[in-house]
Amino acid sequence: IVGGTVATVESHPWVAAIFWRSKSKEKVFRCGGSLISSCWEVRSFTVTMAGAGEEQDDRTDCCEFAFQLKHQRAPLLLICNCLAALMKLRANQGKCAVESDSVRTVCLPPPQQRLQPGVTCEIAGYGKEKYGEEKAQVNLLADDVCRHKDYYENMITDNMFCAGRPDWSQDACEGDSGGPLVCEVDNRLFQFGVISWGDGCAKEFRPGVYTRVTNYNRWIDEKTNLSITAGA
Ligand code: 4AZ
Q1: Where's it found, cell-wise (predicted)?
Q2: Can the peptide bond before residue 129 be classed as cis, meaning omega within 30 degrees of 0?
Q3: Which residues pair with 202 in a beta bridge?
């Protein structure tokens, strides 16, 4: 998070810090995530593959495709954003996550709920620049603004939305991707976005890009075999 403030774990009890175990068995911090049920987390990630040729794939939600190619060691450079990925937690003594003041699931948004541009939402994560849990506030941008040529033009699909500060002072950054963007509706917080990508951090005309979670409610319910979508 850039330009944010220190957050207590209790204020964002659904935020996960995801670590990978390196070859030397060390735990290395990779990205964020959020707890959507006691045994499932949702996150986003970027797949980059280098090879002999160079080709940029413009599909933005191509996880399965990318993994197939990775398996075949295809000679191309592919960068794609997996906008929504689910991670199943392993149960420990019959339980996955045990809820407490610092561990709690986040609510998925009602699928039809649309928020107006300008609405202020909150992001949280453990990424740059301070690498401690921080939170910041960002405002939703209208799609046509984010698709303007001064912004991201045709890089924004219907599965994404943009959010930033009018003065560009607060933003998500490297290591925050996968983490949640939550907004308040009728005094309750819902996860409307997954921190996904951006050109740099807190840069003018380069807002953060988020996965539009309402487009994935049904998919999440199907994949997890849960019915965690409100009002579905
Ligand atoms: C990242 O690499 C990342 N400023 C996440 C969000 C943004 C940039 C980079 C948005 O995880």
Answers
A1: Secreted, Extracellular space
A2: yes
A3: none
